[in-house]
Design brief:
The complex is a heterotrimer of chains A (about 450), B (about 450) and C (about 140). Chain A folds into 2 domains: about 325 residues, Rossmann fold; about 100 residues, ANL, C-terminal domain (GMP Synthetase, Chain A, domain 3), CATH 3.30.300. Chain A contains 10 helices and 21 strands. In chain A, strands 3, 4, 5, 6, 7, 8, 9, 10, 11, 12, 13, 14 and 15 form a 13-stranded mixed β-sheet that branches. In chain A, helix 7 runs parallel beside helix 8. Chain A starts with about 20 loop residues before the first helix and ends with a strand. Helices cover about 30% and strands about 25% of the residues of chain B. In chain B, strands 3, 4, 5, 6, 7, 8, 9, 10, 11, 12, 13 and 14 form a 12-stranded mixed β-sheet that branches. In chain B, strands 19-18-17-20 form a 4-stranded mixed β-sheet, with helices on one face. Chain B has a two-stranded antiparallel sheet with strand order 1-2. Chain B is globular and about 70 Å long. Chain C has about 140 residues and is α+β, with helices and mostly antiparallel strands. Chain C folds into 2 domains: about 70 residues, VC0802-like; about 80 residues, VC0802-like. The mean pLDDT of chain C is about 85. The chains are: A alpha/beta (about 450), B alpha/beta (about 450), C alpha+beta (about 140). Chains in contact: A-B, A-C. At the A-B interface, strand 1, helix 5, strand 4 and helix 6 of A face strand 1, helix 5, strand 4 and helix 6 of B.
Amino acid sequence: MAILWNDIGGKFNPACSSDYLPVDQLRTLQTQRLIAVVHRVYDRVEMYRKRMDERSVTPDDIRSLDDIAKLPFTVKTDLRDTYPFGLFACGINEVVRLHASSGTTGKPIVVAYTAEDIDVWTSVMVRTFAACGCGQGDIIQNAYGYGLFTGGLGAHYGAESLGATVIPISGGNTDRQIMVMKDFGVTAIACTPSYFLHLIERAGNMGVDIKDLPIKTGVFGAEPWTEAMRKYIESASNIKAYDIYGLSEIIGPGVASECSDQSGLHIFEDHFYPEIIDPETGDTLPDGAEGELVLTTLSKKAMPMIRYRTRDITSIIQEPCPCGRTVRKIRRIGRRTDDMFIIRGVNVFPSQIEEALLAVEGTLPHYQIILMREKGLDQIEVQVEVTEEVFSDEVRSMEKLRTVLAQSIERTLNIRVGVRLVEPHTIERSMGKAKRIIDKREM
Amino acid sequence: MSEFVTENRIWDSAETMPHDELRALQLERLTQTLARVAEVPFYKEAFAKAKVGPDNIKTLDDLRRLPFTTKADLRDHYPLGFLAVGRDRVARFHGSSGTTGKPTFVAYTKEDLSTWADLCARFLVSGGLRPEHTVHIAFGYGLFTGGFGLHYGVERVGAAVVPASAGNTQRQIMLLKDLAADVLVCTPSYALTIAEAVGAMGIDPKELSLKFAHFGAEPWTEDMRAQIEADMGLLAFNNYGLSEVIGPGVSGECAARNGMHIQEDHFIVECVDPETLEPVQPGNQGELVFTSLTKQAMPIIRYRTRDIAQLDPAPCPCGRTGIRMNRVVGRTDDMLIIRGVNVFPSQIEEALLRVEGTAPHYLIEIGRPGTLDEVKVHVEVRSKDLSDKMSHMQALRDRIGQEIHSITGIHADVHLVEPQTLERFVGKAKRVLDHRTET
Amino acid sequence: MKIKQLSVFLENKPGRLSEPCHALSKAGVNILTLSLADTQQFGIMRLIVKEPEKARDVLTQAGCVVKVTEIVAVEVEDRPGGLADILEIIEAADISIEYMYAFTFGRKDKAALVFRFDDPDKAIDVLQDKGVNVIGGLELYDNAD
């Protein structure tokens, strides 16, 4: 009997049906939902109405998906400027949840959900976990931080609705995380990749080898990471490490997820319509071209987003996925338009440095990039923690390691960098997102 | 007194079930529970040892023939020894922060989670919550049951949740103000911290739109309620629960605010003498013991809470028929024995709040420098009451000492300290420093 | 005859040396000798202790990167040319020395040289052949007590 591609391992979850909609049906659905959401925001949200009026666009001008290009973009500062309730498309009595970003300075951004929005969010997280191979019977340790951050509760609702057992351990208390992982026979973990790296390392110090535990899946998101980092994590822990993607402004985690093919992230585009634009000109780019990801929420009620500029750089993969899902994939996001730094006129992304470091044998996953200005000249120093694998008791080999690392980075960036080997645990460990760059130039 | 008054609203008609029906339902559910735990190794063994079985339990009074369950039993059967369902039916685990060694974990099926949300919805609604409200939850989320219990309860009612979690008080206050929260959920000691920070940030509590608060997770006093209500301009409700039984939702106050109605259709309560383990005379203080009636994943039989309270069977004007418990006055295990006298930290707190000019921030320090116990009580003085007159401060000190003596019968050495010098707590407060137990 | 030596990676910053030493002393591990190789940026602390396995666990628990290597310790006579004689033997056998350091041990204040050879087994053979006293672990530890 033929094996259905959407029934892999007999674990098909009916909640994932929308992942496999025939493409023409999917486009029709998207078109209908787009028209509805444009009407909704035009009628209910002053900012959108004003901007559409300025461009002389009315909701009736939006009849096809291509017409989306007529609509204005929305950017992060719009959320800040309309804080707290300015972009709500419903009354507070319909709102059942409010989340807020951890704005480091000043006012945070606030996002709202109706009961229906929570249902949609839960469903896309179910689809996320299912795409990562999780299902009923799994014991999922949710180590994303709970609270105002959308990661924790988003993953929690999804895992619960999936029918798995949820351990809502939240972030922090690493020793207890490892104890629970071991004692409860946890099979999957949800957290940031950098926190999992920290868990692997701490487990090692505690004499626990994660390879010996039943855990087999990592659902990692909330920060950019590289293919090289995935390889490191997978070989150090013997799990499958999946990349998931989302952002609070759109819904939280659950915008896109990798599948068993691990060759890009399927966007749940029946709810979130993706476009790729040139970040400079704002022009829409064709599938396959690299640019900034722009997302429009097609079904959100409390706070729809029209053409939200994510600042994440990726491209849409046209080719069909062997997993059979019809929702399109985006390439994993290694960089953002705003984490790029310019050093001596060269554009540099932290992901390039991560790739270069991990390309050196003996892989060193803990690093931090320090930008300084000495005598008016930009300097870049990459601090790398020494691990047992690469440590030699000979000064000569350590010096050589330093040179090799510097050369590897220099080859990628074409600028001189200083590499400093540091002791383990000296770089701040992230409970949530890793802080990779410290810019001391303006200090 | 607050300007907000609650109407008497009832979430579930089961809360007003006539007594005879309630007892019949309890017996039916108890029988079902005993059938469910029959295969749980711990109970099997404990029942065999006590030579009782489900068949011996024909009436509610027969419950007394069953053995007790303690926290140590839970710890000894870590992690899954108390499960009464297959592991794949467990939808969630929660844990309590075991102070030493392994924490204790509790499990919930999907039905348990739904029951729990309902129980929390009951006390939230009886304490003023309406679907149009916004609720700021400053309990820690995670393994602790407080955050999630209230979160799902609020969701069940249909109000908006701000899952603020614990920490960063200034940010909490900014969100309370900007998102115009109507209801605050946290520990009473954290509410005091917030009230104090509101003052320090120069915000008039009137700028906040808080109308109600639901406090739990630690013992507090009537005077503390009066103080928080006066400082924050809201109505504060007490609720009670513990993760071993289900989490918050075991009992909660109604609009009468005269004791917390125990949700007797889901839990049987007993009040026993912690020494003899015999039932106390009706109306007397004793240790509360709970038996769960509807829990699936981890039913609990005669769980000794170590919480000291008293039960009040008198009918309540609100119409709820669940028996009321008064506030927890202490725990059998935080009860201090000072020169042979039983003292609860809450009594010291009560004494302090009777004296004008003290802040409800205190630390009890017990030592035994010679052969006799000595008690020092460190008390923060409010900044406005700070006086540079020695005689004035001396008088304040003496008054506190007298109040403590009149309530507890012990003489304490009172130390006045400057405002903001004692440690502040985000979660449960640690009020006692007992040097006698140190090696 | 080979002796286990622990190497610890350290950043070249004030106070860095004391942390691993504190950890060891708290665990009751006695350090027989310690030598430091450093560059401008980092250093490598090399230790000989009585219980290398225990010390390794203690240091790893304390978050240090630790490597156990095998070294050869040789007793040298306290006379001019004592060191030169030994180096001559090594050179003649075409064995390379990665590094070396000296320390005193025992009640009689004997001097010992610690060598890290690329081929320690061969080195032990030729040294013993020429009548040099290669110190074993037991002798070293006993004399240290």
